[in-house]
Amino acid sequence: MERKLTGENIICISSVDWEPIWTRKQQVMSRLPASCKILYVEPPITLLSAVKDRSLWFKWLQWLKGPRKITENIYLYSPPVVLPFGNIYSWVNRLNQRWLLLFVKKIARRLGMDNPLVWTYLPNSLILAEGLNPKILIYDCVDEHSEYTGLIKKDTMLEMERGLLERCDLVFVTAPGLYESKKECAGNIHLLPNAADVEHFARAALPETPVPDEIGALSGPVLGFVGVIHDWIDLNLIAYLAQKRPDWSVAMVGPVGAGISVDRLKALPNVHFFGRKSKEELPGYIKGFDVCLNPFRINDLTRRVSPLKFYEYLASGKPVVSVEMPGVMEFSGVIETASDYEGFNRGVERALAGESEERKKLRLGAAARNSWESRVEFMMDKIREVMKH
């Protein structure tokens, strides 16, 4: 079977901006064939978003710039602001989607993108997606969106997502829990977990990769976390480890989410926050870790997630300690897992004491089997199958 998609127009309705933090959306889109023209539609902010988070003010007028070309085949577009409460009231979402369609359709016409493959990451995007006259409609479901905290009504979100699932030609989900919860509504659904940019994060194992001075200056074994520090991260677990083992240093690398307080952790002498780093810098930071931490809170959201950072840790070759969550248990032979705080502490101790070149090779081998290249190849195979029918 031909594995490439040649010369297709693809409109990606994304749930995150292209920069600064790369997730599954950017990893997938950047690996599709260069002959495909891709319009990456960043998520709109609402009229209230910039009031809650002042860093978003720049997005108020960014739509006036039109499409921005970032590679030979990828264009970014930031749509105008929308009404708040679209994830609480379906009628508000319908207004927002029709409003967005006016602008996205205009940009698609300007770029000559007729009859595109529409690839969405937003569960409430059916009106926008259908309005773009898709050749095929793809939903890549990466989270249980109805379990997010904030301005969301669970039943409304599930209803909107159900309509999208029933209309889609092809659905991918990242975790077994998502597969179980979506399979009844989707006719063509495939489990496809997250992965790693293996070559990039393998730089953490190279002698020539420098460790940043701020990490190198930490004392004792360094336990490290990389990612957005939000309410799905168990900050109580981090505090427990730091207080139980004052001889360990904990490095938190990533931005702190809006509304999340880390004052209690900052008051601990052995917990250090380094803020957001570019993806180019991350291998150096991870190289400075003795153990990588996957400290998710266990709830209905995290039970149905495939933790992206986990695969990046594997690709670095470093020891990994994770809470027991379905998305990582198949790797229990090469990582340490724990069901409670004391078990997590013992897992770190085992990871530090039992590290060897053999264990490192096992982790690197597991990462190599879970690359973004292999994931995109699988996706293209499934898209080609749909297009042939």
Descriptive report:
The relative contact order is 0.12. The strands form two sheets. This protein has an eight-stranded mixed sheet with strand order 3-4-2-1-5-6-7-8, with helices on both faces. A six-stranded parallel sheet has the order 11-10-9-12-13-14, with helices on both faces. The chain starts with 8 loop residues before the first strand and ends with a helix. It has helices at 24-29, 49-52, 90-110, 126-131, 154-167, 176-182, 198-201, 213-216, 235-244, 263-266, 282-287, 308-316, 341-353, 357-368, 372-388, and strands at 9-13, 37-41, 68-69, 74-77, 117-120, 136-141, 170-173, 189-191, 222-226, 249-253, 271-275, 291-294, 320-323, 336-338. The protein is built from 15 helices and 14 strands. With 389 residues, the protein is α/β, with parallel strands linked by helices. The radius of gyration is 21 Å and the shape is globular. The protein folds into two domains: 9-195 and 371-388, Rossmann fold (3-Layer(aba) Sandwich); 198-368, Rossmann fold, CATH 3.40.50. Strand 9, helix 9 (235-244) and strand 10 form a beta-alpha-beta unit. GO terms for molecular function: transferase activity. Keywords: Transferase. This is Glycosyltransferase. Pfam families: Glyco_trans_1_4.
